[in-house]
Amino acid sequence: MIILAIESSCDDTSVAILKDKELLSNVVSSQIAFHNKYGGVMPELASRLHVEKITYVIKEALEIANVKLEDVNYIAFTQGPGLIGSLHVGMQAAKTLALLYNLPLVPVHHLAGHIYANRFEKEFQFPMLALVVSGGHTEFVYMEDELKFKIIGSTLDDAIGEAYDKVARVLGLGYPGGPIIDKLAHEGKAIYPLPLPKNDQSFDFSYSGLKSAVINLIHKLEKRNESYLKEDIASSFQKVAVEILIKKTRHVLNQMPVKMIAIAGGVAANQELRTRMQELINKEFKNVELSLPRLSLCGDNAAMIGMCAYYRILNNNEFGSLDCSALATYSIEKF
Known about the structure:
Blueprint (H helix, E strand, L loop, with lengths): L1 E6 L4 E8 L2 E9 L1 H4 L7 H23 L8 E7 L3 H18 L3 E5 H7 L11 E6 L4 E6 L6 E5 L5 H11 L6 H9 L22 H16 L6 H26 L4 E5 L6 H14 L4 E3 L10 H14 L20
Parallel strand pairs: 1-4, 4-5, 6-9, 9-10
Antiparallel strand pairs: 1-2, 2-3, 6-7, 7-8
Helix pairs in contact: 2-3, 4-10, 5-6, 5-7, 5-8, 6-8, 7-8, 8-9
């Protein structure tokens, strides 16, 4: 089975070719250089850049994989959630290929794709817990079986990745903030006390208060003309941001039967989170297997969409039609 997968939910144009579960190519065209000066993704610009790049990215992915379009059996694409304009570009490209070559369409949920990026590392063991952490999402997804998703906890306001971006913006560090803050945090010291957000017995998260606390801290220091190191602010912020993820994960693992935990999403590349999560499992939950996606598959990419499509094809053979729509908001429980 050869799958051509397209991902265009935000600001990365990506196309991957899979032969069953073997990844033959995974091309990602990043738009960071275009959006950096705005301090975040400009939706209209993202859509236009997807239109410019999509044909070239498809061509490059096929060339690297040494596959012709006539060899492809399925066309997979990200249906949602994401920026509606960006999603439309990938979806229309997928529909065009499906129509021209008479191929079945396989719509994929973006977050399901992030979870299934872990399938390149390990086979899943159920029941499984996925901690989804990205710019737009922070949630616990419980899976009792293949492609069965239940949200048991989510953010009440800002996602963790969004908080990273806003803190980076206040510190004048550029976009995206996650990798920059993570690097700086390891060069500084967590000397500033910050509140642990949503520190309760629920499975939910809240990062708005932590973001505001960092902004207020910086304003107070500047008003008093007190010097500070950006590295120390970054370290103080990251310590608390990751600590609440660890505490909530510990709480879920103590409350629910779990054989495996998988970290998913762009923030899965955070070194502090990866280290702390590994320590948690090694020390307190040795009977739970931890899966961390390879760094190249933490961000948005088409390989994860192709992998999720592969299991959807195996398990239900329900495909999309040419009149299906892109979905800006889309609960993973409805996938």
